[in-house]
Amino acid sequence: MANFLVDSQVSLNAATSGSIAIPVSTTPELFGTLGLNTSGAGADLRVVFDFTVAVSSLLSVLTPLTVTVNRIVSGVTTTVYTATETLPLLAGVTEITLLSGSGVDYHPPNPGFIIYQALISVPGGITLFPTRVGPESFTAEAYSDFA
């Protein structure tokens, strides 16, 4: 069956490097949110998403960063993607790390409108927090078979 693009959205929190300076914490922080109109979808609904977030750290002691993508349908939040990247061990040099990823939410429930959110955090027990510096973006496209 052929793919049918149902909807596509972009959430751009920061367009350029150095445009923000937000410390990452143990509490997941939103860097992208969007809603997809899936009311025209046929069978076999799937949502493809991509994210980019840049962080900077002057001192990094193998700091893990976690990016989470949640789906929200009728007020119910479901985690559909989680990835953890560990920043390299550095001291005394400002290092910018660009985290990018892609994922698919295959056969999500379809009430006609689905919200997706991208969040970033560090696990508990971390004492040296990196800073979000931009760019930050989150995109999603909903596809289905022909309606």
From TrEMBL:
Protein name (record): Exosporium leader peptide
Native source species: Paenibacillus glucanolyticus
